[in-house]
Amino acid sequence: MKRLIVAAAVAMSLSGCATIFSGETQPVTFRSEPEAAAITVSNKAGEKIHAGTTPVTLTLKRGAGYFQPEEYRVRVSKDGYKPVELTVTGSVNGWYIGNLLFGGLIGMLLVDPTTGAMFNLAPDAVNATLESDGVKTSRADGSLVIMLVEDVPADTLKLAQRIR
Q: What is the pTM of this model?
C-alpha cells in the first residue's frame, strides 16, 4: 500500500494536474438563431479550423504554444441577416494551480504549459443571435431574388439596368 501511495505521488509530480484532469482539448458548442447559419472558426494564427453550419460541437485545442492560450475567431452568417463575429479565448484553468498543492513543478513549468491544458476556453457554448439585415427577399430556388424597388439599397439600385 505504501508503494502505491509513493507511486501515485511520483506520477503526480511528473505530470501536470490540468493535463490529467482537463486534457489538451475542450469541446465548444456553437448554435445560432436562426439555425443552419454558416460558421467559420479560425485560430490565433489565422488558420481556418472549421467551416460548416450551426449547430455544431467542435473539439478545440486549449493552447497555442508554450504558455500561450489559444484564441478562436468565430464568424456566423446567413443570407438576410447581419453577420456576427465572436471570440473564444483561453484563460488559466483551475487545475493548473493544483500543481502547487501536489508539488508538480514539472507539471507547472513543462507539461501543462506545453500541452495547453493549463487553459480553459470561454465561452464553452456560443449562442449567436443573428439580426435581420432589413432587406426583404423571396427565394424560390436559392438563386432568384425578387424585391420591390423601394427595398433595394440605394448603392445597389445605381448599378441596376432596365431590361426591355
A: 0.70
